[in-house]
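User: For my dataset I need records formatted as: sequence, then structure tokens, nothing else. Please produce one.
Assistant:
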Amino acid sequence: MALGLPGVHGVHAMKKEELVAAIRKAKGLPEEEKKEKRVVVKKEKVILSVAELKQKVKELRAKKGEALQQRNWKMAEILRKRVSRCKKKTRRVAA
């Protein structure tokens, strides 16, 4: 694309940013403003003990029972997966 534009030379040796700038200049397009990047702050991992994880499983199972009583199938499915994840974490911590 840039090879056919008048006034653009040395296309093969240009980096992508230089090439885009040269094409914009040749076509008379305005310069693109750079967006600010968002800084994501990661949370600190909380390591629970086996007993705490088992307590959490117990609570989640109770919530799942309530969801099933109310016929809230979607929430029951979400809680079932959370129980499964907690059980896996319990096995990893114990090992």
